[in-house]
From TrEMBL:
Record-linked InterPro entries: ClpP/crotonase-like_dom_sf (IPR029045), Enoyl-CoA_hyd/isom_CS (IPR018376), Enoyl-CoA_hydra/iso (IPR001753)
Gene3D superfamilies assigned: 2-enoyl-CoA Hydratase, Chain A, domain 1
Transmembrane intervals: none
Domain of life of the organism encoding this protein: Bacteria
GO molecular function terms listed in the Swiss-Prot or TrEMBL record: catalytic activity
Protein name as annotated: Enoyl-CoA hydratase/isomerase family protein
Classification via Pfam families: ECH_1
Family note: Belongs to the enoyl-CoA hydratase/isomerase family.
BP GO annotations: fatty acid beta-oxidation
Length: 265
């Protein structure tokens, strides 16, 4: 059974992470995640992606400690420079998560269990995170192993919840409960039952969204923290004017003016 699988139904791609028994991310997971994104990107019918765990109580766990121990011993033996890249798979994971962020499609993480380390980094790269209220934890406890995150977690978490809170969690190697994740702003929604059900319902709402507008919104919002306000507003203005010239927004404006469409959801 593959560690990452994709099923596409009615425009929603369900991307399932599975590596029993503990759900650790490893080299195979990372490679298959990239292939899964290739499949999704090649299908023009897809308008939203839901990412979830395929094992009970696990979304995705930390990166394989066995692989990291082998790498650690190899680095000590070869005295390889930290500036070199002895672990291409780590670079590949970072690149793959950047693909999720840059995708024109909305990615929703349906967090249905343990979500720590590399698994949490996958969730952080998604646009929306929905949690289940169950007995599991989320976070980046890498400091407890004398390490730091390896695929962007130390950069994404502060952008999400602020530097002070991120420092507290990561320096102490703390994980949080689903309720705490919701309160801190790590998750946007708590599912009343199963996260996958709530995520699928939310994904369905993107069926009527204009994909170029969704893509531009992702670019604008994700880039907002890195741009001076004036530059961000200029980028927004350029996107607004570009979309005004396209057929679909014009048709929707026409319908709105004729009373055949409501701007509210």
């Amino acid at each position: 059974m593959p560690q990452v699988s994709v099923r596409i139904e009615e425009g929603i791609a369900l991307l399932v992470l599975r590596n029993p028994p503990h759900g650790h991310v490893d080299r195979v997971t990372v490679e298959q995640l990239g292939f899964a994104l290739d499949t999704i990107e090649a299908n023009p019918s897809v308008f939203a992606v839901v990412v979830t765990g395929g094992e009970a109580g696990v979304f995705a766990s930390h990166y394989s400690a066995e692989e990291l121990e082998i790498l650690s011993r190899h680095l000590r033996m070869t005295k390889q420079s930290p500036g070199e890249d002895p672990l291409p798979v780590a670079t590949l994971l970072a690149h793959t998560l950047a693909r999720i962020e840059a995708s024109p499609l909305p990615f929703i993480a349906a967090i249905n269990g343990t979500c720590i380390g590399a698994g949490f980094e996958i969730a952080l790269a998604c646009d929306i995170r929905i949690v289940e209220d169950d007995g599991y934890t989320l976070g980046l406890p890498d400091a407890n192993l004398g390490l730091v995150p390896g695929a962007g977690g130390s950069q994404r978490l502060p952008r999400l919840i602020g530097q002070a809170r991120a420092l507290e969690l990561m320096l102490m190697g703390r994980t949080v409960s689903p309720v705490q994740a919701l309160q801190m702003g790590i998750a946007q929604e708590m599912a009343p039952d199963l996260a996958i059900d709530a995520a699928t319902i939310m994904a369905g709402r993107f069926a009527d969204q204009y994909r170029p507008a969704t893509a531009r919104l992702k670019q604008l919002i994700r880039g907002a923290a890195d741009l001076p306000l004036a530059e961000g507003i200029a980028a927004e203005r350029a996107a607004f004017l570009a979309l005004l010239q396209e057929d679909e927004p014009l048709a929707r404006l026409h319908d709105l003016n004729r009373g055949e469409r409501d701007i509210a959801d």
